[in-house]
Amino acid sequence: xxxxxxSNVADGERWYLVRTKQQKExxxxxxxxxxxxxxxxxxxxxxxARNGTLIESVVPLFPCYLFALFELESxxxxxxxxxxxxxxxxxxxxxxxxxASIVExxxxxxxxxxxxxxxxxFRAGEHVRLIDGPMEGFAGIFEHYRSGAKxxxxxxxxxxxxxxxxxxxxxxxAASADFKVRPTVHxxx
Length: 189
Fold this sequence. Notes:
Strands 1, 2, 5, 6 and 9 form a 5-stranded antiparallel beta sheet that branches. Mean pLDDT is 83; it is low at 180-189. This protein has helices at 25-32, 72-80, 100-108, and strands at residues 13-20, 38-40, 43-50, 53-60, 65-71, 85-88, 90-91, 94-95, 97-98, 110-111, 114-115, 127-130, 139-146, 151-158, 161-168, 172-174. The radius of gyration is 24 Å and the shape is elongated. Helix content is 14%, strand content 42%. A hairpin with a 2-residue loop joins strand 14 (151-158) and strand 15. By secondary structure, the protein is mainly beta. It folds into 2 domains: 13-115, NusG, N-terminal domain (Alpha-Beta Plaits), CATH 3.30.70.940; 119-189, SH3 type barrels, CATH 2.30.30. It starts with 12 loop residues before the first strand and ends in a 15-residue tail after the last strand.
């Protein structure tokens, strides 16, 4: 670890960005609360595929980072030697202060530390694909939103016929240029 310079640092508590080891953000936040006045670990709600189904999970907004409010000269040594801490973000060898307004702006964007990020919106006619449910992997064309933004109507081409389906919005993603449509299986007689 490079030497951190403490010359020309302002007195008083300031916000700093603490870098953690992978997946140790919650542990570091817990340990830091023993001796720093405030910490902030912003999180976001996301959906992940697990065993073929989408499940909701809450993950750090900035993986491997959290904000801590402390007086640099008296607390830096303890912070750096806290289990799970990899360092403090620096400009050169001087710890970089995070302006309090930035921390407050992030805090205001969520409830209980969970920041709600706007979902990507689709336009009528946009090519999409289903990423969950019995039609997972099928491609379609976005038609419109239903029930606010929670459900969407799509046009799918299944077995040579167009069919309109309504699915949860979280089950749909934009079709990438390299996405190959699942081949249609025709039953033989």
